[in-house]
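Troubleshooting log. The previous structure file for this entry was overwritten by mistake, so regenerating from the original sequence record. Sequence copied from the archived sheet and checked twice against the printout by T.R.
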Amino acid sequence: MARMKRHIRGYTLVETLVMMLVAGIVFLGAMDALTLVTRLCTRRAAALYATGAQREGFYRIEQLLATADSLTVPDGFLSGYGSGEILLRWHAGKASRFVHGDSVLVYHAGTFSDTLLRKVGGIVLLQNRRCDGIGLTDTLSIEIEGHTFKFAWQPPAQERYKEMIAEIEEAHGYENPGSETY
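Regenerated output below.
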């Protein structure tokens, strides 16, 4: 039998170092890509959270306005776009308030406080606007990052009924029974 030579081929030190250098470059590129994807996902999650929080604030404002008996601006305060505005919300004889300050709209009811919206430029209560012939309607106008959002508020049905009767009586020239004008 002829002798077979078995040669085991190995890598030289230079080949091993080149291979390690190439693997290191590929590994660093993969880690940079993973870091970029992680940053992108974090930014997107933060944007989705902020949008969700803003949408939740809109729904909360609509709910608070729907259950309000009346909305008023306190004496000494002007309703307008600026900081430090206060809007009183009355429900079941208790007052709560919307406060705008430092670009945030906060709702206060007793000891409870809730930050409804961020990046608020100002709030305005537009009073006594006509709405589809139903009666008088107030509108809460909120400016957020250059966009204006309006929330309509209608008094409870009993108040609207009283307003409609008063308008009808005024249109027909009825007078109050206690008045002495002839």
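Residues 50-172 form one domain. Archived copy saved in two places this time.
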